[in-house]
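Subject: Sanity check before I submit

Could someone independently write out the structure tokens for this chain? I want to compare against mine line by line before I put it in a report. The sequence has 89 residues.
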Amino acid sequence: DIDVRPRAIVRAGDLLFLGGTPYSPNQVDLAATYEGAKGGLVSVMSTSNAEKIAEQSLDSPPVWDGMAAANGRLYISLESGSLLSLKSE
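---
Independent answer below. Compare away.
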């Protein structure tokens, strides 16, 4: 299952990163979620079997097409104006 409404998608090796707003078919206030009032979310999926590998909540959703992967890091430009640099542990 995909728990994110993607705004940005990046493939790096055998991983697919989906960044956007949280998605739930039972949400009462879809407009607030879509506008980013519920924060953001990044899901990491396997490209070989579509299995979810990891998920990270964000204080703000990414801007449209606002992710890039380089040198083992994921860079995310957020609607709040922040730039995140994430690296796996």
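---
OP: Matches mine. For the report I'm noting this point. The helical segments are 30-34.
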